[in-house]
């Protein structure tokens, strides 16, 4: 799961609203687990992850050839 918004649209709740809808759709469609990763410095996206119920699992190097903060939620 991921999101990218132009800075003019940051702070309006669009990411949380869209991410919550995608998360619900994923689980309604039968997925058992959803993951999201953020750059360690991207605290705004980390707050979105937590707001929609994803759980912080620590750091990982498994995605994008970079150190990321890993969030996940199971159905």
Structure in words:
The chain has 75 residues and is α+β, with helices and mostly antiparallel strands. The protein has helices at residues 14-28, 43-51, and strands at residues 33-38, 55-63, 66-74. Strand 2 (55-63) and strand 3 form a beta hairpin. The longest helix has 15 residues, at 14-28.
**Mean pLDDT, rounded to whole units?**
95
What percent of residues adopt helix (DSSP H or I)?
A: 25-40%
Low-confidence parts lasting 5 or more residues at pLDDT below 50? none
Straight-line N-to-C gap: 15 Å
Q: Largest sheet, order of strands side by side?
A: 1-3-2
Fraction in beta strands: 25-35%
* Rg computed from alpha carbons, rounded to a whole number of angstroms: 12 Å
Number of helices: 2
Summarize the main sheet.
Answer: 3 strands, antiparallel
Structural class: alpha+beta
How many strands? 3
Inertia-based shape: globular
Order of helices and strands: HEHEE
In short:
The protein is of the alpha+beta class and 75 residues long. Strand 2 (55-63) and strand 3 form a beta hairpin. The relative contact order is 0.21.
Question: Main attributes?
Answer:
75 residues, alpha+beta, globular
Write the layout of secondary structure elements.
Layout: H1 14-28, E1 33-38, H2 43-51, E2 55-63, E3 66-74
Antiparallel strand pairs: 1-3, 2-3
């Amino acid at each position: 799961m991921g999101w990218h918004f132009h800075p003019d649209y940051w702070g309006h709740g669009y990411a949380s609203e869209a991410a919550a809808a995608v998360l619900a759709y994923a689980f309604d469609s039968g997925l058992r687990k959803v993951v999201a990763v953020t750059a360690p410095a991207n605290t705004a996206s980390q707050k979105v992850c937590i707001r929609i119920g994803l759980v912080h699992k620590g750091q990982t190097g498994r995605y994008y050839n970079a150190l990321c903060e890993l969030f996940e939620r199971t159905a």
